[in-house]
Each structure stands twice: as C-alpha cells, then as structure tokens.
Specification:
Blueprint (H helix, E strand, L loop, with lengths): L1 E7 L5 H11 L5 E9 L21 H11 L1 E7 L9 E4 L6 E4 H25 L5 E5 L3 E3 L6 H8 L6 E6 L18 E4 L1 H11 L14 H11 L3 E8 L4 E3 L8 H5 E6 L2 E6 L6 E9 L3 E8 L6
Parallel strand pairs: 1-2, 1-6, 2-3, 8-10, 13-15
Antiparallel strand pairs: 4-5, 6-9, 7-11, 8-9, 12-13, 14-15
Helix pairs in contact: 3-5
Length: 304
C-alpha cells in the first residue's frame, strides 16, 4: 500500500513523538512523507487553553533531523505573518466562555493546504500514485499501529463518495459523554481526491459568518465538509488510548502534574504523576451502583 503522510503545523514536541510515528505508521507502509511547518515552535494566537509555553525559533539542526528521521520528500518552513489578533469566535460548547482566534484556525488550515500542495507537486513530477493520504501534526505520539488495511475494503465500496476518516477523542462533557468529533482535525486520512477536496473546502470557510454560532472548531469543519458533500467517519482510534497530543512540560504547573483531584456527588477522580507518558496503574469502577471512582497513576487514558 502506497501512502502519503503529510505533517502540518508547529513542531512543538516532535522530538518526543517521531519514533512512535515511524514505528506505528511509516514502517507499516510504503510511505512518502511531506511537511509544512512554521519558523516558531508554537503558536501565539488565542486558543481554548492558555498557551504559556516557551516559544523559540526552530533551528537548522532540527530541520536536518526531520529530514533524516522521516526521509522527507520535501519540506517548507514559513514565518507566520500575524496581524493584531482581534477576530475571535466564541465556542458555544462552553456557553461562549471560550474563544478561539480565527487567525489561528486559518494558519492551521493554510498549513494543511501547503503540505497538500507539496504532495500534489511531487505526485505530478514523479507520476506517483497513492492509495491514501494521512494528515497528522508533528506533536502526535502514536501508541498503537495505524492500520489502514482494516478499512480499505470498505473505502473501496464508496470510491465515488469523498470521505474523511478521522481519529478522534471522547468528549469529557459531564452530561454528554459521547464519542464524537473531538480532535478530529488532528489526525485524519482519505484518498488523495478526498483529501484534496477536504483541504479546498476548509480553506474557503468564511469565519466571519460563525462568530456566534460555532459549537467548536471541529464541529464547524465537520458541518462545512458535510455541506460540500464530504462524508466524515470517526475511527475506533481514540485519543488518550491509541494516540495522544504531547504537550510541553510546564514547570509552572508542576502541582497539577503531580496531583489532580475532582470530587462530585457521583464521582471521585484522582490523577497522580500525570507527566509520565503512560498509565502505570488505572482503576475505573462504580461503587454503590452510582458513585464512580476514577484513579490513575501516570498519563491517563481517555476518560471513562
């Protein structure tokens, strides 16, 4: 199986994730790898969390490391031309209390577009043919094999229907704990034709129309693709269990890394030493028929 793997976005913690991507994705298929990234290690635009990370310029040594580890066919490193960040969109899943920068979302989608163009150019010049295109961020650590062959037969039955197949997360919402579109814009794949359409549709979103009616960015992308005739399928490849976003260690928040505690009338959640990369001990049980005990030492899997 011939696969194009397209990295997009800031490098962030790529050095902690690269080996896992090689092991669980690149080594399993005949892969050509492409990358578009930014000259800084992280973003400065407003998002749903407070970004207090140390941001620096990426080095030529890091670029050479990327080429060596991933055997990159091509890479583009660009500087973000950030204007005054005043255009925010309120996320209705938090009743408008959380706002994200439309400029930041445009940068992300632009990065997907540019890396897609790298693959298209290479494909044309070398007459390459790909079964699938995988879009993934550099700060993603894979815990399990990303097995495209499991859905290959099903995809072949709908070749005329553009489809996006997304790894996703489980909603942490207290009242709506469903598998849905959480984090569905971070790792996804499709046929080259489908990914071309996904990139084109998302890069033509008019964010001004959604200042007050966006549930969250992932849902906005999902709906725009559905309106354009692109189907979305969510894989049983779950964030926190099968893959994870690796955040930079923040010494300022050392207390929350050591212990986190949450108590409600129906739940006790206790996290210890959560900066460890994997769970050492994990207990999820129900007491007295209604009270949930959720205990974990190390990096927790997706909330139960």
């Amino acid at each position: 199986m011939k696969v194009a793997v397209q990295f997009f976005g800031h490098l962030r913690t790529f050095d902690k994730c690269a080996n896992s991507v090689v092991k669980h994705l690149l080594s399993r298929y005949d892969c050509d790898v492409f990358m578009h990234t930014w000259s800084k290690t992280d973003h400065t635009t407003k998002t749903w969390y407070q970004n207090k990370r140390q941001i620096r310029s990426i080095t030529q040594e890091e670029i050479e490391t990327l080429k060596k580890i991933y055997h990159l066919k091509s890479i583009i490193v660009e500087e973000q031309k950030i204007t005054e960040d005043t255009d925010f969109i309120a996320c209705q899943h938090s009743n408008g209390k959380t706002a994200v920068s439309s400029q930041g979302m445009k940068f992300m989608l632009y990065s997907q577009k540019k890396v897609n163009e790298l693959r298209q150019k290479y494909q044309k010049e070398h007459h390459a043919k790909y079964d699938y295109v995988v879009m993934i961020r550099p700060d993603i650590r894979l815990r399990k094999d990303f097995i495209l062959t499991d859905v290959d037969r099903e995809i072949n039955t709908r070749q005329d229907l553009p489809s996006r197949y997304c790894a996703c997360g489980i909603s942490r919402s207290r009242n709506f704990p469903i598998i849905g579109d959480c984090a569905s814009d971070i790792v996804f794949f499709g046929t080259p034709k489908a990914v071309d359409k996904v990139v084109d549709v998302l890069n033509n979103i008019d964010f001004r129309r959604h200042r007050q009616d966006m549930w969250c960015p992932e849902e906005l992308f999902y709906l725009e693709l559905e309106r354009a005739g692109v189907s979305n399928f969510f894989l049983n490849y779950i964030e926190g269990r099968d893959w994870e976003i690796v955040r930079p260690f923040n010494a300022v928040k050392i207390g929350t890394h050591l212990i986190r505690f949450k108590l409600r009338k129906d739940l006790l959640r206790l996290r210890l030493i959560s900066f460890l990369p994997y769970p050492v001990l994990s207990i999820h049980t129900v007491l007295f028929g209604f009270f949930r005990l959720d205990f974990c030492i190390g990096k927790p899997e997706a909330d139960q």
